[in-house]
Amino acid sequence: MRRLLGTFVAGLVVCAGCTSGSDEQPSPAPASPPALSLASLDLGWSTAQGKLDAGDPPPAPEGVNPLTYERMAADLASWARVTTVDDSVWHAAKPVDAVSEVLPARAAAALRKQARSAVSPRLAVANVFADDVTVLGTPQVSTAWQVSQADDEDGKPYVVLELQTRAAYEVRLGSDGPVRVIGMLRVHGLSAYADTTDDFGVSGGWQEFGAGDCALALDDQLVPESDLEETRSDLQTFQRVGDADDVEMPDLGDDEQVDADYLQRCRAGQV
Fold first, then answer.
1. Quick one: which of 234, 232, 236 has its CA closest to 34?
2. Coil, helix or strand for 225?
3. Which residues contact 103 (CB under 8 A, 6 or more apart)?
4. What whole-number distance in Å separates Cα of residue 171 and Cα of residue 192?
5. How far apart are CA 247 and CA 81, in angstroms?
6. Where are the domains of the chain?
7. N- or C-end of the chain: fewer Cβ atoms within 10 A?
8. Which residues have C-beta within 8 Å of that of residue 146, sequence separation ≥ 6?
């Protein structure tokens, strides 16, 4: 039995030697996954890194203090620059610190409070990527402004000024992963009463296109979606919004909201 075993082992060694020395060619390496780059999308938007050209806000509505309105617009432009094109924030552990530096103190405090109660507190305030996701080159960005007026529960009128950024990032996961694009819509909003100086109300929202879904809730960061066809479909919607002049956040079904229920479904592997 031992000799037979030895014979089989020797036979295996000989056969292995024959294979490596034969005329047969090794099997070709599997093809790399196709890339999805900014160039392939041909967005035609402005490139922006570190600086953001937010454009001009709409005229101040009648009855709104022009100096207050001008201050709101300037604060929104600074806020949007940090959340969207400041590369020091893209991998920050606490992006809310950088955002708070460019907002009035009370608005910054309100934003911190909102972030603490969010399922994804970092993504609630800025576009943040996983540590092993590299942003390649410079993102392409379009913007849109929106102004509206409403009355609070006591009937007191106030104005809301919003700035939306639509940012497309070319990214790679790991050192040799395929090139992908992640799109981010983010609305930054400030509100003020007629007698407000800088005690602004804060509002906002975000929506991703082409990012892995559960990473948003479980890890609070952006990673590229593995399904290329789903990414292409998502980015078509993103590009339509980014090409428009008006602020829009596409409707999501209840099961697509990043909330506590979504987090639990991700933990249970149900997404």
1. 232
2. coil
3. 75, 78, 79, 111, 202
4. 38
5. 17
6. 34-267
7. N
8. 58, 161, 162, 164, 246, 247
Q: How many angstroms separate the CA atoms of 211 and 202, rounded? A: 26
d(CA 183, CA 217): 17
Low-confidence ranges of the chain (pLDDT < 50): 1-25, 29-30
Count other C-beta atoms under 10 Å from residue 36's C-beta: 21
Task: Please report the DSSP string for 136-198 in residue order.
Answer: EEEEEEEEEEEEEEEE-TTS-EEEEEEEEEEEEEEEEETTTPPEEEEEEEEEEEEEEETT-SS
- For 194, half-sphere exposure in the C-beta direction (CA atoms, 13 angstrom radius) is 9
The tens digit of pLDDT for each residue in 27-57 reads 554 455 667 999 999 999 999 878 899 999 9
Neighbours of 185 (CB within 10 A): 22
Q: Quick check: pTM over 0.85?
A: no
